[in-house]
Amino acid sequence: xxxxxxxxxxxxxxxxxxxxxxxxxxxxxxxxxxxxxxxxxxxxxxxxxxxxxxxxxxxxxxxxxxxxxxxxxxxxxxxxxxxxxxxxxxxxxxxxxxxxxxxxxxxxxxxxxxxxxxxxxxxxxxxxxxxxxxxxxxxxxxxxxxxxxxxxxxxxxxxxxxxxxxxxxxxxxxxxxxxxxxxxxxxxxxxxxxxxxxxxxxxxxxxxxxxxxxxxxxxxxxxxxxxxxxxxxxxxxxxxxxxxxxxxx
Amino acid sequence: xxxxxxxxxxxxxxxxxxxxxxxxxxxxxxxxxxxxxxxxxxxxxxxxxxxxxxxxxxxxxxxxxxxxxxxxxxxxxxxxxxxxxxxxxxxxxxxxxxxxxxxxxxxxxxxxxxxxxxxxxxxxxxxxxxxxxxxxxxxxxxxxxxxxxxxxxxxxxxxxxxxxxxxxxxxxxxxxxxxxxxxxxxxxxxxxxxxxxx
Lengths: 249, 198
What we know:
The complex is a heterodimer of chains A (249) and B (198).
Chain A: H1 2-20, E1 30-34, H2 38-44, H3 49-52, E2 63-65, E3 91-93, E4 96-103, E5 105-106, E6 109-116, E7 119-129, E8 135-140, E9 146-156, E10 161-171, H4 191-195, E11 211-212, E12 217-220, E13 223-227, E14 231-232, E15 246-248
Parallel strand pairs in A: 3-10
Antiparallel strand pairs in A: 1-4, 2-10, 4-8, 6-7, 6-9, 9-10, 11-14, 12-13, 13-15
Chain B: H1 2-15, E1 19-21, E2 46-48, H2 49-75, H3 79-106, H4 113-119, E3 123-124, H5 128-134, H6 139-167, H7 171-196
Antiparallel strand pairs in B: 1-2
């Protein structure tokens, strides 16, 4: 009875919500940030953009219908996330694993599900509430061991869709001890390609992904700039584009 | 009443899809000449609804990011996170000044960002309440929460900027959107490495 009344209330609210919700976009997005899911590894640059595609820019948008067992949500732009052959980093873990989700928008949540193969090893109810900050779950890996792919699924409460994240695991034997370093699946770091691909700009010594202290000077495009505030440089924060960080001298 | 306002805003935004041009003689000039601040890059006068919507939404988005970065600057325990918070704070203030000047030039209001967000896909990650709640945390718990929220917030900024790159027409605004994509992606990369360990 109580439930009925609640449902009636929700139903009454629906017309107004529908009215202001654009068609076809859930725009409640999320992914597992820790341990680094495949999406997070794309955004971190651990796996290069050539391999990752759109997941580098929108790790939160591997969205698809509920009920899938994949990493992309069967969303074509994110297909590389389904490719087990890419150089994904593998997280060593015992039987207990804590995971943290990062969201770009809050949205009513039906629940979270975690699968290894066809086995559901974790379930957390969402009660159609907005996610908490932060959202961290501790799950038991159900006796699985060795190299496994964990599907982490965020089922949205008020759309038909879910968001998919995959985490590559090497699950150690009992007791959560760190397994021997037999993780030959982890290839030599490819980070060098991603973090140093930005060439130094012509005629300057400013470079992206470099830590600059307040007061240090660089040249860029023939001019000299002094760092106004300590930061790690980024593409888009070139001195002429970031007067808040660089003062022309 | 509030719904009516939202509805009106949505209709206005969804309305024409046309473009507008600021009349001659009202061109923007960086008004930095008289102050110590560097001149604000002006936007050209030809723009469409997507440009206006993006800039209006970004004004609200930047302000929330600035509020959160200030908490991060005050409370983060690692220098790396503090530096990033400080850099986000100052660069977004600079962007905010620029975007407000563009709206003024275009004769458009700053608008109600929260309603705009609601109309375009639901609850933004951040609001004043969420930001205030972070102040109750401390130590590594604060760091994790701060970095996670900022990562998500900047990720939402990337989504908005990608939409602008697709639908906008004003060259300065689409160029700014490109910088938003790059700088936020770079920040997200830095933060994810702190969150998950490099």
